[in-house]
Amino acid sequence: MRRWLAALLPNLGLRSRLLVLGVLGLVVGFALGGALLLGALGWTLQRSVDDEALRTADAVALLAAEDALPDPLPVAGGQLRVQVVDGQGRIRAASIDADRLVPMLGADQLRAGERQRLVVDGRRVGLTGPVRVVTVPAGSADEPLTVLVAKSMSDVRHSLHVVRNLLLVGFPLLVAGLAVVAWRVVGATLRPVEALRSGAAEITGRAGAERLPVPAGRDEIQRLAVTLNDMLDRLAASRDRQRAFVADAAHELRSPVTNMRTELEVARRLGDGTDWPAVADNLLADTERLSRLVADLLLLARLDEQAARPDRPAPHAVGPVELGELLRGVAERYPSPPLRLDPPPGPLWTEGDPGELRRVLVNLVENALRHAHGEVRLAVTGPHTDPPVPRQRGGPAHHLVTVTDDGPGIPAADRERVFARFTRLDDARARDAGGAGLGLAIVRELVRRAGGAVELADAAPEAAAPGLRVTVRLPALADPEVD
After folding, report:
1. How far apart are CA 386 and CA 392, in angstroms?
2. Which class for 419: exposed (0-12), middle (13-18), buried (19 or more C-beta within 10 A)?
3. Where's it found, cell-wise (predicted)?
4. Which end of the chain lies in a sparser environment, N or C, as judged by fewer CB atoms within 10 Å?
């Protein structure tokens, strides 16, 4: 049976498999229930026969004890046959239709002084079919007697036969009817699943909203459809971001390659008149720009992968970082002026990857130097406990790193957009001076990994050139050198 099911079920559809399993369950359940019903009915009928025979035997035994046995013995209804035999197996009294010469039980079956329940062949007592015989001891110690009462089992067998035939006929019809109902119910239940499958088959990945049909009922299938549509929306958004990213990256990578090719083609056409040192300088600048762009793209790809797999351990080293020392190390890379550092009065510690935090500061400083008119200020203050959310009493302690320039600033409407990748607000500026538009996107991702936030604001709102103040909020850490 198990092998047959294992071979059959994989070749059937879900609806058929559910029906086969359900019908098999019904058949097994009905078979066990029918067997239990027949057993209980047979036991109940057998017990009623025994009770009736024993009541008659006890009544006759009471008469025998009082030495008042009538002859013939009175039996109500003619359904019972009664004999009273002595210790030698002789019949002392009998009912009107009982045999007066041959006892119902042979000498090898009869045990004097014990109550017995036996089934014997009905021909021994002049009945058809099996007969139930009960024995009850009677009489006295001087003259022991035994009362034998026989009752035919034909009614019991007939009742069991009728019930068994009804079960054999009714159970298959009931199973067939339930199978038809189950087939329709399972089909109605799986109809939304088929609609989801058809909708999924029609999704081709083309641009535009592609969604699965959502069933009207508020059940598991409806929640599955909603979840799948949410997944499709996330996949579509991710696909759009990837397409835009690939298009922008291809365009940005094409620019330095085109510049390098143009330089080489012009140098080849000029021949001996080519200023090769100048060509080498230009090629070196394009190569450096290309290297920076590739490094930024790889960094963003790695950050995206780590954000998509938050369960994986971070490959970077996280530890305590002293912000004053970090700012001094970054400031030493640039001339002063225009970069001016406001050193903190004491050590300010945070937790993060020193390389990533240094990359944040370098990107912000270079962006400020690119747009500043005369001065860029770098500072760190803290710890602060002002609430980051209005109406909130207090928040975790944090340090504020600020990079301020006196350039044209960024309009408030564009301050969120500049964190998108490959975003440039000044499309007319030279690409060599303007960068690829990845610096602030990298800043936001790295600051977010450090558990902080970055904000943009005007440095001097009333001035003609409001400038830009970039504020990086980093979680404060207790001084690890203090026990």
Report:
1. 9
2. middle
3. Cell membrane
4. C
Most confident of 47-51, 210-214, 241-245, 248-252: 47-51
Please say whether the beta carbons of 60 and 75 come within 8 A.
no
Give the span between the Cα atoms of 2 and 231, in whole angstroms: 39
Q: Which of 125, 136, 132, 121 is nearest to 56 (CA)?
A: 136
Tokens representing 322 are 């002293």
Work out the number of other CB atoms within 10 angstroms of the CB of residue 300: 17
**What's the rounded Cα separation, in Å, for the pair 248 and 436?**
9
Judging by DSSP bridges, how do beta strands 468-477 and 398-405 pair with one another? antiparallel
Over residues 60-82, mean pLDDT: 82
Per residue in 385-396, pLDDT tens? 765 444 444 457
Position 48: which residue type? S
Residue type, 81: R
Q: Is the pTM of this model over 0.85?
A: no
The count of residues in the chain is: 483
Q: Tens digits of per-residue pLDDT, 130-149?
A: 889 999 998 777 788 899 99
Report how far apart, in Å, the C-alpha atoms of 91 and of each of 56, 58, 94, 115, 148 are.
Answer: 17, 18, 7, 18, 10
Note whether 377 and 340 are within 8 A (CB). Answer: yes
Query: Residues 248, 421: contact at Cβ < 8 Å?
Result: yes
